[in-house]
From TrEMBL:
UniProt organism field: Larkinella humicola
Residue ranges of every copy of the Enolase C-terminal domain listed in the record: 211-394
GO MF assignments: racemase and epimerase activity
InterPro entries: Enolase-like_C_sf (IPR036849), Enolase_C-like (IPR029065)
Identification of the protein by name: L-alanine-DL-glutamate epimerase
Domain of life per record: Bacteria
Length: 462
């Protein structure tokens, strides 16, 4: 069977392997009416570069963000545009280090274009099928053009976001689905069945941010903030800087109160982006937290170790979350076995299709999830919010959780907000640290089904 024959061949493919969290595509479509088989007759792509205020993490910084734009057109004449924000440093820092910032982005964009060429002329039934089919080939192509045999799967998934989003929009219209909830396949609905009326808006502060700046954010109403640790330098230099940072933050905001946690205290969310090489180093950080009375306010520590570090983290006394190391649902399962007790999911960085698989696994394993950002554009913020608002409550919290930092780093954020078809909607604006995900948010599916005049114009003459 060649590639064109098995794209969309739903009767024989498995959504996942043979473990307890496997889902056959037949099971996935249980309780749904028969789905249309969608043939892609035309594809197109483009990108826009958006300048950033330097965002420092993983010992480096990004200053330019490429917005990938993918178009899919079916035999029925329906055209849908999907967006993706490229995160080269986040998804594979080795690619970022080996190339100029623009070259790294160009390599990822080439993988997006490769995916589009692979699916042109083929058929699919669900976007999950489509992703399962193209991901291996796109990853293999990425390894070839980056000359990196160890290219991370997340890099390929990031390249596929705009394609996957376009496929979901096409799938929804072809099957006459008018709401986000209708679009979720039956097998993945349990993990995305909650309805938060508020979702925390979590800003992110890069390494080197002053405690005074973080205090200002707390004064503005933000009650949970992503605090980047893993300072530049040797491991000994890093831990000393991180400890000093923790001390300064706790002194500045440790006494603040919030109605959105069960303790009434501000929670700390630290993200080391894999900078810690040994468990003992992280224990020094945690011991210092205990010493200054900050330990009980640590809600989560995200990705303290590199993904090839198999150290068990379930005995640290704090919730440790997997992020970029949970590339796929199999990787997430492995992290859970290593004691990771939360997963930062990113529909806007690893595709909605893969995110649905991960959130369902987490639901079955009783592992809480929250949504992390990739410094995405305003429309993608609402794709992510559509997931965050439906995740089960995070322990100790009374609202959904979503990191969103684009307003902090994009130089043209206000202009980009104008591209959002529902820019004036109440749910698009942070209000005292939260988004109000009211009935209109769900009824209008966060505006993700509405076309954006700006991005439609990119392909107006195509």
């Amino acid at each position: 069977m060649n590639r064109r024959e098995f794209v969309g061949h739903t009767g024989s493919l498995l959504a996942m392997g043979t473990t307890g969290f496997s889902r056959s595509l037949t099971d996935m479509m249980t309780d749904q009416k028969p789905l249309a088989k969608i043939r892609i007759r035309n594809v197109n792509s483009n990108f826009e570069r958006e300048p950033l205020n330097p965002y420092r993490f993983k010992g480096s910084a990004i200053t330019d963000s490429w917005q990938a734009i993918s178009l899919l057109e079916s035999d029925s004449g329906i055209r849908k545009i999907g967006l993706g924000t490229q995160g080269v440093l986040w998804s594979d820092s080795s690619v970022f280090a080996a190339h100029s910032e623009s070259a790294g982005n160009a390599l990822m964009y080439a993988m997006t274009e490769r995916a589009l060429q692979l699916i042109k002329g083929t058929s699919f039934t669900t976007p999950v099928d489509l992703l399962d089919t193209v991901l291996p080939e796109v990853l293999a192509y990425g390894k070839q053009i980056t000359r990196n045999p160890d290219l991370r799967k997340t890099f390929a998934l990031n390249a596929l976001v705009s394609v996957d989003n376009a496929a979901w929009l096409l799938y929804a219209q072809e099957n006459k689905m008018a709401r986000f909830d209708d679009m979720i396949p039956a097998a993945y609905r349990p993990g995305l069945s909650h309805r938060h009326t508020k979702v925390a808006s979590i800003p992110s502060f890069s390494v080197g941010t002053t405690a005074e700046r973080i205090k200002t954010a707390a004064d503005e109403g933000y009650f949970i903030m992503k605090l980047k640790t893993g300072s530049a330098g040797t491991q000994s230099e890093m831990i000393e800087k991180d400890i000093a940072f923790l001390t300064a933050v706790h002194k500045a905001i440790g006494h603040y109160e919030t109605p959105y946690t069960k303790t009434g205290k501000i929670p700390y969310y630290f993200d080391a982006n894999g900078r810690y090489e040994k468990k003992e180093t992280l224990l020094r950080f945690l011991d210092h937290a205990k010493k200054i009375g900050a330990f009980d306010q640590i809600a989560v520590i995200e990705e303290p170790f590199e993904e090839n570090n198999d150290v068990f983290v379930g005995d640290l006394g704090v919730r440790v979350a997997a992020d970029e190391s949970a590339h796929t649902v199999e990787d997430a399962a492995r992290r859970i076995e290593q004691g990771y007790s939360a997963i930062a999911v990113k529909a806007i960085a690893k595709t909605l299709s893969m995110t649905m698989k991960i959130t369902q696994l987490a639901y079955e394993k009783k592992i809480p999830c929250f949504c992390a950002d990739l410094t995405v554009n305003p429309i993608l913020v609402d794709w992510n919010k559509s997931v965050a608002a439906r995740l089960p409550p995070f322990p100790g919290m009374t609202v959904g959780l979503q990191e969103t930092n684009g307003h902090q780093y994009y130089k043209n954020w206000n202009t980009m907000m104008g591209y959002h078809p529902k820019a004036a909607a109440s749910w698009t604006q942070t209000q005292k640290g939260v988004y109000l995900t009211d009935a209109s948010f769900y009824a209008q599916s966060a505006g993700i089904f509405d076309p954006s005049a700006h991005y439609e114009a990119v392909f107006a003459d195509k």
